[in-house]
Amino acid sequence: MKKLLFSAAMLLAGVSANAQLAPGSVAPNFTVTAYQPWLSTAGTTNNGSYTLYDYLDQGYTVFLDVSATWCGPCWNYHLGGALEDIYAAHGPAGAPGVSSTTTDDVMVIWVEGDGSTADATMLDGNGAIGNWIEPAAGNQIQFPMANPASGVANQINNDYNIAYFPTIYRICPNRIVEEVGQLGAAALYATVSACPPPASAPSDVAALNYTGASVHCEGAYTPSVNIQNNGTSALTAATVTITQGGATVSTGTYSGNLATYGVANVVCTPIANFTGGALVVTVTTTGDASAANNGVNHTVAAAANAVSQFVTVNITTDRYASETSWTIKNSAGATVAQGGGSWTDLPSNGTTVQAPQMVTLNPSQCYTFEILDSYGDGICCAYGNGAYSLVDANGTTIASGGEFASVDTRAFKTGALGMDELATIAMNVYPNPASSEVNVSFEATNNDYAVALMDLQGRVIAAKNMTNLNGTQVVSFSTENVAKGSYIVTVTVDGLTTTKNVVIK
Predict the structure, then answer these.
(1) pLDDT tens digits for range 310-331
(2) What residues form DSSP beta bridges with 255?
(3) In 106, 143, 251, 428, which residue has its Cα 20 to 30 A from 122's Cα atom?
(4) Which residues contact 346 (CB under 8 A, 6 or more apart)?
(5) Are 447 and 493 in contact, with CB atoms under 8 Å apart?
(6) Per the domain annotation, does 199 fall within a domain?
C-alpha cells in the first residue's frame, strides 16, 4: 500500500517516503531484543537478543517484518498467521514453537518500526490496536517481536528505506534483500529456493548486479558491476569480462581482501563509440567453485533522436503527485530543466495533470531525461492512471511511460535546426480556459494544414486536416464530451508543428 499507511507521528520521526531497498541490495546488520518475556533467554546470545548476521552466518534465510502497532493492515497480516506458520514449519531446530520436523532453514524477526511510538506503545495491547504478542488467548507468538527504542527503530527504518508498513523482506544467507510482501506461509517459503546456498567452498565469486548506466548518450561508455565473495576464504583477486555479440568489449579486475559475503564494485574499461545493446558480464577467480553465479546480463539503451531542440514534458501523475519529479541533464551531468516534487496530492480517486512544460535545449547535443517516483512504484496504474511523455516540436515522441520502479531514465539527442525549422506558426487558442469549445486561429500560406487537440499523453482527442489554405483560419473543436483538464493544441504544416496549451473546465 501507499502512504495511506503512514501516521503523522511516523513522518515526524524522520522516516522518509523513499522507495524500499532495491532487490539485490545488501542487508545492513542489526540487533534487537524480543519483547516477549517467554523468549527472554531464547536468542542466539542466550539473553533474548537477536542479531541478523548471526542467523545468516548459520545459513538461515530471514524474513523481516517491519510494522507498526497502530497499522491496521499490519495487524490483519499478523492475524493471518503466515509468519507463525513458516516459523513453526521451517524455523531453527529446538527453538520455542518450532516443529520437531522443521526444515531448519528459516528465521523470522518482527520489528515495531515506528520510532515515535516504540517507547510508549506496548506490544501487549497497551494503547495499541491489539495484543500483538498474544493475539488470541493462549496463542503466544514464538518468533521474536522487538519493540526497540526510538533511535534503534529509526536506524532500521533508515537502513532499510522503510516507506510503508508493513514491509516484509526476505534476506538470503548471502545478505541480499528482496521485498516479498504480504504472502502466505507456503508462498513465502517458496521464495527461499531463490537464495544461493550458504558459502561452503573456499573460492567462489559471484556477479551480483550490474551497476553501470542503463542509458547512454554518445561516445565512450563505462560498464561496472557489483561482485560478491561467496567463498569461505577472503577473495583477493577476480577478473571481469564483458562481451557484446560474443566479442569482448571491456574488462575489469578486482584486487584486495574481500571477506565472505563482502561486496565490491568493479569499474571496467570504457567501450569506445558505444551505441547501446545487450552486455554479458562474467566474473571469475582462481579455483572458482561454481560457474552458475558468475554471470549477469544487462541491456543499455542508446539515445533516441529528437528532430527538434524544443521538447515538451507532459506529466500525468497518480493521485500521489508530490512523489513525482523530473530532470533533464546535459552530457556533463548538469541539470538544465526540472519540475515536480511539490505538486499537490489529489483525493483518493483522482490523478494530477500538470501543465506541459516546454524546454529549449541546445541543438546537436545529448541529454538524459529522468523521472522519479520517490515511493518506488511508478505513476501508473493502481493509484491513478498516470503517464509521461517527451515530445519534440515536430510531434515526435522521444520517450513515454508510467509503469516503472523508482526511476525511469531515457537519453535523447537534439537535432541541428535550420532557420526555417526554427520558425513557428502564428496561432492563437481561445477561450482559455475553455468550457464548450476550443477555437484555434492561425495564418495559412497556400499550404496543407493539420490541427489537433491532444491529451498530455499524446492521444488525439479531435483532429482536422485541411488542404490548400490561405489567410486567416479558425478551427473549432467541441469540448462537450471532453474531460476537464489540461490539453495540447497542435498546428502542423510541412513537418513543422507549433503547440499551445489549453485548459478545459
Answers:
(1) 888 999 888 888 889 999 998 8
(2) 237
(3) 106
(4) 319, 321, 352
(5) yes
(6) no
Flag whether 446 is in a domain.
yes
Q: Does pTM surpass 0.85?
A: no
pLDDT digits (tens, 9 = 90+) for 121-138: 678 887 678 999 999 989
Domain final position from 194, 229, 262:
194
136 with 223, same domain?
no
Residue 182: helix, strand or coil by DSSP? coil
Last residue of a domain, one of 351, 383, 414: 414
Alpha-carbon span 460 to 396, nearest angstrom: 14
Domain enclosing residue 253, as ranges: 205-301
- Asked if residue 280 and residue 319 are part of one domain, the reply reads no
Q: Report the alpha-carbon angle 46-50-54, nearest 5.
A: 95
Residue 8 class from Cβ within 10 Å (0-12 exposed, 13-18 middle, 19+ buried)? exposed
Q: What is the pLDDT of residues 349-402, one digit of tens each?
A: 567 777 788 888 888 889 999 999 887 778 877 777 888 999 887 778 888 988
More confident residue, 403 or 34: 34
Domain-embedded: residue 135: yes
Q: How far apart are CA 258 and CA 230, in angstroms?
A: 10
pLDDT at 496 (0 to 100): 73
For residue 460, what is the domain's CATH number? 2.60.40.1930
